[in-house]
Amino acid sequence: MSRPHCPRVLAVLARWFLGTALVTWRYLWETTPLYRGGECRGDEQDRPPALPPETVDGRVQRVEDGCGPLFHRLFRVRIAEAEIDAGRLIELICQDFKRFIPSEVVTIRVGELRAQGLDVADELLVEMPGPWNGPVRVVHRDAESLHLATLRGHMEAGQVQFRARSDDDLLVFEIELWARSSSRLVHLLYAHLRLAKEAQLNMWVRFCLSAVRASGGRLRDGVHISTRWLDPSVKAHPSWTTESPLEPTRGFGRHV
To answer: Which of 25, 37, 59, 88 could potentially form a cystine with 226 if both were Cys, beta carbons 3.0 to 4.6 Å apart?
Structure first.
């Protein structure tokens, strides 16, 4: 009974190795300084923000639907001499999301958008180098942020938020993620073999660098990355889904 599954498992691993090799090649030749703060155990502040109730249905793949530890990651760049403000940068991301993604590894498919670009309830399909595509839905958008939640079939269960803000004379762009693996196989690739984890890191680093280019400014101090995790034995709280306002977490302040 187990023999028919072997070719599928081998195919899964082969596709991941190929995709990771492409990502790694670009990563090795990347000259941008990356400040990786290491990994540490998280706390209550690392739980994801609540999803607006009106955006949650049976297709949403919430954090509590996942497998393994919850990873909370933050990617941050500071931009000097930007030619646009925070609101305009988020507007550009919403209008042409695929412009910010490394196209040789990831393909973005999205339906017809309105003039303002991505907005609440819009869905994207992120086609990745592996057996899983990445369907996501916009659950929140405002002048300076875009928030997505994963849907059934995604390799992760969780959320990702893109936001921009001014900090004196600098423009700050951040990508914040809260996610668990969607299955035991993904957990193996992500947490133990680290294939998906490194591919994800490279993709979001390059998204940050695309944001710098789109702003017309220059990168200050490289890309800062922090990773915190919560043990899977920590039970999901009801506020992870529908009870609390959708606010960005600030649990990284003392670690970045």
So the answer is: 37
- Mean pLDDT, residues 56-73 taken together: 91
Our CA angle for 126, 129, 134, nearest 5°, is 25
Query: Nearest to residue 217, comparing CAs of 225, 209, 207?
Result: 209
Q: How far apart are CA 201 and CA 216, in angstroms?
A: 23
Task: Flag whether pLDDT at 63 surpasses 50.
Answer: yes
Q: What is the mean pLDDT of residues 99-113?
A: 70
Across the chain, what does the average pLDDT equal? 79
The pLDDT of residue 254 is above 50: no
Beta strands 67-80 and 123-127 are unpaired
Kindly report the pTM of this predicted structure: 0.78
SS3 assignment, position 212: helix
How far apart are the C-alpha atoms of 128 and 13, rounded to whole Å? 13
Q: 81-108: string of b/e by CB count within 10 Å (b at 16+)?
A: ebebbbebbbbbbbeebeebbbeebbeb
What tokens appear for 70 in the block?
């919850």
The whole-angstrom separation of Cα 76 and Cα 118 is: 22
Q: Where are the domains of the chain?
A: 5-240
Report the C-alpha gap between 43 and 247 in whole angstroms: 17
CATH fold for the domain made of 5-240:
Alpha-D-Glucose-1,6-Bisphosphate; Chain A, domain 4 (3.30.530)
